[in-house]
Amino acid sequence: MDEIRRVAVGCIGRAVMFGSLAIGCVMIGFSFNPVSAFRAGAFLTLTMVLALMWKATTAGSFLVSLVLMLFGLEAYRPPSR
Length: 81
Prior knowledge:
single chain, elongated, transmembrane, transmembrane helix
């Protein structure tokens, strides 16, 4: 179970990193007006959190096993021919 948790933390960490990079770019784009920059950053961060929570509740067993297979856990890979 520890290896599955490690893979899950890596996947979610990567998603949050790319989302934060995009939010930071939008905030830099609004840097001429700090109020708009922080408002856009707060809205986009809330949107990212809601999207990750929705994805966590609707992820089926197929998606979970697919991610485990793709990230190299040998127990979840189909037998080779």
